Amino acid sequence: MNKIPMTVEGAERLREELDQLKRVERPRIVQAIAEAREHGDLKENAEYHAAREQQSFAEGRIQEIESKLSHAQIIDISKIPAGDKVLFGVTVSIVDVDSDETKVYKIVGDDEADIKVGKISYQSPIARGLIGKEVGEVVVINTPAGAVEYEIDEVRHI
Fold first, then answer.
1. Domain assignment of residue 141, given as a range
2. Are residues 102 and 142 in the same domain?
3. Average pLDDT of the residues in 29-55
4. What helix, strand, coil percent values describe the chain, rounded to 5?
5. Cβ–Cβ under 8 Å, residues 4 and 75
6. Residue 53 — very low, low, confident or very high, per pLDDT cuts 50/70/90?
7. HSE-up of 141 (CA within 13 Å, CB side)?
């Protein structure tokens, strides 16, 4: 499996979720299964089946997180010398050449992406169009609404 790039913050959030699943959720689900078994006939016991479904989901998520962390390539942008080039982990300000509208995005790993808070995946069309370019360059990004020209206004290593 290839390395999965992620920021330091993204890796930390995954570790916290893994810890929560192992220390809190797993014991709670085991307890719920034990209590449901005490109610007798398992074939018609909805509580038992719901608890087993929760267990299956939690164990699957634990395996998924452990796999991602074992294949993670954690990139600490604060350790990379600041410059004008767009890289994984930077926060970039871009200006729509036609509308003069400014947008700010942080380029992150797939698991960290959340457009509502301005975090986009490095694999998104916008990020792919920006990575490797420098402040002052104009890039054309193909969007569902058509091609849009953006000028790279600022790159911050935060």
1. 79-156
2. yes
3. 86
4. 45, 30, 30
5. no
6. very high
7. 24
- In this structure, the strands spanning 102-108 and 119-121 are parallel
What is the rounded average pLDDT of the residues 77-91? 91
| 92 plus 151 within the same structural domain | yes
119 and 57 assigned to the same domain:
no
Q: 99, exposed or middle or buried, with CB in 10 Å at 0-12, 13-18, 19+?
A: exposed
CATH number, domain at 27? 1.10.287.180
Residue 51 has pLDDT above 80, yes or no: yes
Q: Token digits for 57?
A: 């989901």
Is residue 1's pLDDT more than 70? Answer: no
Label residues 126-141 b or e (16+ Cβ within 10 Å = b): bbbbbbebeeeeebeb
Token pair 């990379």 is found at 80
Which pLDDT belongs to residue 88? 94
Question: For residue 140, is pLDDT > 90?
Answer: yes
Q: How far is CA 138 from CA 92, 100, 117, in A?
A: 13, 13, 24
Mean model confidence pLDDT for the chain = 92
**Paired residues of 92 in beta bridges:** 105, 155
